[in-house]
Every structure is written in C-alpha cells, then in structure tokens.
Write a structure and sequence with these properties.
Elements: H1 5-21, H2 24-44, E1 53-57, H3 66-72, E2 77-79, H4 85-93, E3 97-105, E4 113-120, H5 127-145, E5 153-156, H6 159-162, E6 163-164, H7 171-201, H8 204-209, H9 215-245, H10 253-280, H11 287-301, H12 316-321, H13 323-335, H14 345-365
Parallel strand pairs: 1-2, 1-3, 4-5, 4-6
Antiparallel strand pairs: 3-4
Length: about 375
C-alpha cells in the first residue's frame, strides 16, 4: 500500500488539534482573555471618558468676534477641518465629531451674535458637555464686554431638530476587531513558538523523521491544527459580539465571511512570527521574552483599545508600520463602514508584504533539531 503524505499530515493535524484544545494557555489567550475585554467594553457602552472634543466650524461662520476666539482657545475644544466631505461624514457617524457650530451676526437686535449647534445621536456622550461649555463661554464673554450683562450671543439649539438620528458607532464596533486581532496575534506567535519548540525538545520531530512523511507536510499538519482552532475562535468571538452586544456586521453574512478571510491572512502572518521565535529561542524560558518583544508593541500601539489618532504625532508612523494596525483597520472598515476586501486591498497588501518578509526570515532561523 502506497504511503499517503496527506493521510499522515491529517493524522498530525488531528493529534495537534487535540493537544491545543487540552492546553490551558491556548484557551486563556485565544478565548478567555479577549472575552474579558469584550465583556468589559460591551457593558460599558459608549462612554469614552475623553475630555477633548472635536468641533467642526461650518462654512460661512463669522470668526471675527470674541466668542469664536474664546471657543478656539478653550481647553477641551479642538476645531478640525476636513478636505473630504466623505471623511467628515464617516467621522460624524463614528461619533468622533462632537458637534458642528455656525456663528453669525444676529439681526434680531437682542444680541450681537448667534451661535447654532448641531450634532447626532452618535455623539450623545459628547454634545451635552460641549453644550454646557459653549453656554459658559457665552456668559464669560458677555460678562467681559457688557456691564449690563447683555448676552453676547443667542444660543440656537433645539434637541428635537438639531440632533440627527444616524447609525451609531458603538464601543463594541471598535473593541471587538482589536480583541480578535489580539487573539490571532497571541495564538499565532505564542502557540506556534511553544508548539514547535516542544516538538523539537521532546524529540517528537526526530521521531517524525523516522517515518516517510516529508518535513513540508509535518509543518502543514501542525499549521492546519492551529488554523482550525483559531478560526473557530474567530467565529465564536464575532458571533458572540454580534448576538449579545450588537456588533455591527453591515452586510450580514457577507461581512462575516470577509472578516474570516482577513482573520486567516492575519493568522498566517502571525504564525510566521511564531516560527521565528521558535527558531531563535534556546530554551522554554527564552520564548516569552522573544514573543512579548513582538506582540506587546503591537498590542499597545496597533489600535487595539484606542484609535492611533490619539497617540502623539511622532508615534503614529510607528503604529502605522505594525501589521496588527492594518489588520484592525481592515476589519473595522469591512464590519462597520461596509467596505469589501477590494476596498481594503491596501491593508491586505501590507499584510501580505509582511508575510513574505516574515517567512523569508523564518526559513533562515527555523531549526528542526
């Protein structure tokens, strides 16, 4: 009977998958740890706790007045400009813009100026605080310029007409892709590194060499077990987020499948990093430092918890160079913004480029014995 490389590979895959399922560390890093963060941020809701608000000054606003200058220098208000109307619309939808204001001269005779504020339900955690801040600035300027306490500006705002109902960008829409990316990263790096180091250290690989199976199929068998386990993890994480916390899958099943494709691409890349760590490590205790050196910067700087826009300007280029950043951005674009895989081809291209570089290094440093 002819020896079947594929049959042997599948046997290795099944045995390795059973081993992964029985590993407490694999379960903790892939399921438990991401779910802790998903549960925490899922129950928190949309509160961000940030004290700095982005404000858009509408075209045609009068800026030659004391009120505008006071708002411009106020702590907690940051006026932002957008070249693209589409980018502005997307940031409003995500709740990144607290409100839009329009300042004009007042012809009614009651006050020299009028200020109108509009916002959306996506910024319900921001506009009430900003409304209070604007009112205080109007009073401050009025007290400064008019001893008779004439109001410097009429505040034109009506909740029913000036708050627009739109599809909200919830906290879970940002957090879940980041946690999924973290799960893929930690499983790919730590899981593969420990798995192949232990196979080599316990002489299991040497025993494989005594069989007719080729080295390529040994790696494929072990790799498939990791892919199967982690793709199940991805399905569970996305499913729980969608069913219990309202995670947005804008095109339903199509978006779900596209997120799985992105997960697969990310996992292949991160497994390559695991091969590198496995080859460089000389002992069990050397694996965590090497692995953390790769995973920790990406976990902290890859947009897992916060948008990289919140980082200092000098740090943002470093964040944008990390593969986890591009995986997280691609997933968020597909899930909430409705983009397809072709629309995020830039991020996918960078991930594939990273994959080529990583596996080129892995082939040089990986050890069989």
């Amino acid at each position: 009977m002819k020896y079947s490389q594929y049959g042997a590979m599948w046997a290795i895959t099944k045995a390795s998958l059973r081993s992964i399922m029985r590993s407490p560390s694999a379960v903790v890093f892939s399921f438990v740890f991401p779910f802790v963060f998903i549960l925490v941020f899922g129950f928190i809701g949309n509160g961000s706790g940030r004290q700095s608000f982005k404000v858009v000054l509408e075209n045609g606003s009068d800026t030659a007045n004391e009120l505008y200058q006071s708002l411009k220098t106020a702590e907690g208000i940051r006026f932002v400009n957008y070249i693209s109307e589409e980018e502005l619309k997307l940031d409003i939808q995500k709740g990144k813009i607290a409100e839009k204001i329009f300042i004009s001269k007042n012809n009614s005779g009651r006050a020299p100026y009028s200020i109108r504020m509009t916002s959306t339900n996506s910024s319900n955690d921001k506009w009430p605080q900003l409304k209070t801040l604007i009112e205080s600035k109007i009073n401050e300027v009025s007290n400064k310029l008019f001893k008779e306490r004439i109001s410097y500006a009429d505040f034109n705002f009506n909740y029913k007409t000036d708050i627009t109902e739109i599809r909200q960008y919830k906290t879970i829409d940002f957090i879940l892709p980041g946690q999924l990316g973290f799960s893929l990263l930690s499983s790919g790096v730590f899981g593969v590194a420990f798995m192949f180091f232990n196979l080599r250290n316990t002489l299991v690989l040497k025993r494989f060499f005594a069989t007719p199976i080729s080295r390529t199929f040994i790696i494929l068998g072990e790799g498939f077990s990791r892919v199967i386990f982690q793709m199940i993890t991805a399905i569970v994480i996305i499913g729980v987020g969608y069913l219990f916390f309202g995670f947005t899958l804008i095109h339903g099943m199509e978006t779900f499948l596209e997120m799985l494709v992105l997960s697969f691409i990310g996992l292949l890349l991160f497994m390559g990093l695991g091969f590198i760590v496995s080859g460089l490590a000389t002992s069990d205790s050397a694996i965590p430092p090497f692995a953390n050196l790769i995973t920790l910067p990406q976990f902290l700087l890859g947009g897992t918890f916060f948008s990289i826009d919140a980082f200092p300007k000098w740090l943002q280029p470093i964040s944008k160079a990390l593969p986890l950043t591009h995986l997280n951005e691609a997933m968020r674009s597909v899930a909430f913004e409705g983009h397809n895989l072709w629309d995020v081809r830039g991020e996918i291209g960078i991930l594939l480029l990273w994959t080529v570089v990583v596996y080129a290094i892995a082939t040089k440093v990986f050890k069989w014995e």
